[in-house]
Amino acid sequence: MQADRGQRGPRLWVAALGVVVIAAAGGYAAREVYLRPVEHPDVMEEPSKPTAAASPDQPVKQPGSRQVKARGEFAQHPLQRAIWPMLQAHFDSINDLDYNKWRTTVTRARAATFPEHKWREDYRTTKDGSILLHRIDSAPDNRLRVMVSFTSTQDIADAPPELPKECIRWHIVLPLIKEDNKWKIDVGPEGQSPRHEECGATSNN
């Protein structure tokens, strides 16, 4: 046994040397990747028409994906990289019932109208999905308007009184303004009368 192990010794030494060289090269490559600056990805663009309809045997589970997607007009706007991450965080905060995160996506004026206890009560059963950003429009006073549609599910007790349904499709306009050098959702007349209908009703969005 000793003789056999002695014959394998040089081969093992060469193999070990090869492993050390490969590991060193791998470590260098990993360090280069780690040090390389990461670019923020663009918003995922949604086709203007769905590529395939959901099967009746496998209906889409409402409210759908929580990932914020966009139509081409929004995706091609020069400000989309600054606005899309904020809107993704906004909807994530509602889905996760995270008031502190939500607070980072809205202005102080909007937060003042929606204290934490009321926010948690209003959104306690809400889940948002199938979120689609349609376009960005300029508005007076260096503001922006973003047209958004999405689906929400909630207990009927938490649905709007004019539409007590468990699943609702919303079409809203969000007023945006820069605060602390970041785009945030502000108060404004744009979002006071959103269009909404029960899921499955005829709609273009």
Radius of gyration: 26 Å
Helix tally equals: 6
- Structural class assignment: alpha/beta
The chain-level mean pLDDT equals 79
Compute the number of strand runs: 7
Overall form: globular
Distance between the termini: 76 Å
Strand percentage, roughly?
A: 15-25%
Order of helices and strands: HEEHHHHHEEEEE
Structure description:
The structure is a single chain. The chain is built from six helices and seven strands, in the order αββαααααβββββ. The chain is an alpha/beta fold. The relative contact order is 0.12.
List keywords for this structure.
205 residues; alpha/beta; globular
Chain-wise SSE layout:
Layout: H1 2-35, E1 44-45, E2 69-70, H2 72-75, H3 80-95, H4 99-103, H5 108-112, H6 116-123, E3 127-139, E4 143-153, E5 167-179, E6 182-185, E7 195-198
Structure summarized in a few sentences:
The chain has six helices and seven strands.
